[in-house]
Amino acid sequence: MATGNPVGKKQPPEEQRLGPVLRRRGQVQASTTDQRLLDERAPTDWVHTDPWRVLRIQSEFIEGFGTLAELPPAISVFGSARTPVDSPEYAAGVELGRGLVEAGFAVITGVVRGPWRRPTRAPSRRRASRSAWVSSCPSSRG
C-alpha cells in the first residue's frame, strides 16, 4: 500500500514538545539540535566565529564585574524612555535621583533618555558616583 512517503524517508511529527513549548506544522523540526550540530554536511562557520564571540562576551562580563566592584553602595533604577518631559513620572525621576544621591548611593540605569535618565543626571551635577549602562534594546533608543 503506497503512503506517498518514499521508503526510508522519515516525516517530521505533526507536533513537537520542547519543555513547555508545543511546536506545530512549520515550527516542527525534522532533526534535533544535537543532530544538526553533529551533521558533518552542515556549515562549519560557527567553529571559527562562536569561540571568539564567547571570548568577547566573557570579557564584557569581566569588565562589568570590575566596574561594579569599585562602586559604592548602589541602586539600580528601571523605567521607560518614552515618558514625556512634562509628565509627573518625569518629575518623580528627578526627585528620585536627587534623593538617592543625597543619601550617598551610586545610581545604575540602562536608559539614557526619558524620565529614568534623570536619576543618572542628578549624580553628575553633584559629582557623586554614577554608572549609566546603555541598553542594547532597540525599543529603548526611541
Automatic annotation (TrEMBL):
The Basic residues compositionally biased stretches are: 117-129
Q: Where is this region: Disordered?
A: 1-43, 117-142
Gene Ontology CC terms, in alphabetical order: cytosol
What PANTHER family is this protein classified in? CYTOKININ RIBOSIDE 5'-MONOPHOSPHATE PHOSPHORIBOHYDROLASE
Q: What is this protein called?
A: TIGR00730 family Rossman fold protein
Q: What's the source species for this entry?
A: Streptomyces haneummycinicus
Taxonomic lineage is: Bacteria, Bacillati, Actinomycetota, Actinomycetes, Kitasatosporales
